[in-house]
Amino acid sequence: MQISPKKIVDRRAVGDNIWLRFSEARSGIAVYDKAFDFTVLETEDAVGQAMFDELEACAGRKTEDIVIVILGGRGAQAFHRILGEKARGNEIDTLLGRLHVFTQDALAPMRMNNALSFVRDFERILGEDFFRKVKSFTSMNTASEDLEGSLTDYIEKLDSLGGIDVFYLGFGPESEAASHLCYIKPGAGAKLCDFAGIIPISPSILEHHITKFRAGGSEIPEADEAECRNATHILTLGPAAILDAKLIVQSIVDASTAPGKRPSFRRLIETGLSSDQSELKKQLDENPGLWIRLHPNVRSYVLPDLLA
């Protein structure tokens, strides 16, 4: 794959939130005002298999390297177990050798080896063979003394590889049945052109983060939890990264342990998107989960308990 030259990254502050964008970022929002399609599967393993099938289909559609953004926490663990098991053999070695893997969000500042880092969870489930065989793996540097500079380098590398082929997304609940994608929080001021952001931490997100790691089976030392609870910011990819991806694959498998996802998902699929640009921007800032509704190529896989 040919590496593109670096682009100029601009910085925008919205209160205490910092958003980074490429200087040639688009500004108009295309509205796909249609019913949000999703597929209900019976088990978490079936969702994981569907996520893997989407990756294989992408590999069959293109001959060059593949750039993916993986999902942390419970939402992708079944998918990652499939990848890890297959990586221990040689069945998908050719596919793995074409993969550039990126992460979508992280709590900071925090040691890179903290048990509550998504990367530790990836290593636990995907295994050494996966990381040895993929073409590259790049995570956000949460231990950097210059978080903004490190995040700029991160998105420049991601963009230089030609953009995202498959963006694996989850779905997070917020108060008043709002929701977040990656960690784009309600009221954070994210706009269409924002590729990544550094936003202040909130107690609700910290608690949700720790809860979903526990639900996923992670062993968390007390010192690591204490450090995590002292994190001050979240590094996150933004709306531009989500909407520029060629395909979004969403998974929602943990409504039983995160029941707030039920009203949040109901609001996501029932909200009518305004055709007025100013009103639409307000809707998106109040409920960032709606950003996925603006993408024309989404596969959303959910379990029945989300609709209970």
Structure keywords:
308 residues, alpha/beta, Rossmann fold, seven-stranded parallel beta sheet, five-stranded antiparallel beta sheet
Task: Describe the protein's architecture and organization.
This protein has a single domain, classed as Rossmann fold (3-Layer(aba) Sandwich), CATH 3.40.50. It is about 35% helix and about 20% strand. It contains ten helices and 14 strands. The strands form three sheets. The protein has a seven-stranded parallel sheet with strand order 3-14-13-8-4-5-7, covered by helices on one side. A five-stranded antiparallel sheet has the order 1-2-11-12-6. A hairpin with a 5-residue loop joins strand 9 and strand 10. The model has no long low-confidence stretch (mean pLDDT about 90).
Q: Examine the secondary-structure arrangement and name the CATH architecture.
A: 3-Layer(aba) Sandwich
Classify the fold: give the CATH topology. Answer: Rossmann fold
Radius of gyration: 18 Å
Strand content: 15-25%
Helix count? 10
Look at the structure and give the mean pLDDT.
92
Low-confidence stretches: none
Helix content: 25-40%
* Number of domain modules: 1
Order of helices and strands: EEEHEHHEEHEHEEEEHHEHEHHE
SSE class: alpha/beta
Q: Looking across the biggest beta sheet, what order are the strands in?
A: 3-14-13-8-4-5-7
The count of strands amounts to 14
Largest sheet: 7 strands, parallel
Q: Shape, please? A: globular
**Terminal Cα separation, in Å?**
45 Å
- The level 1 CATH classification is Alpha Beta
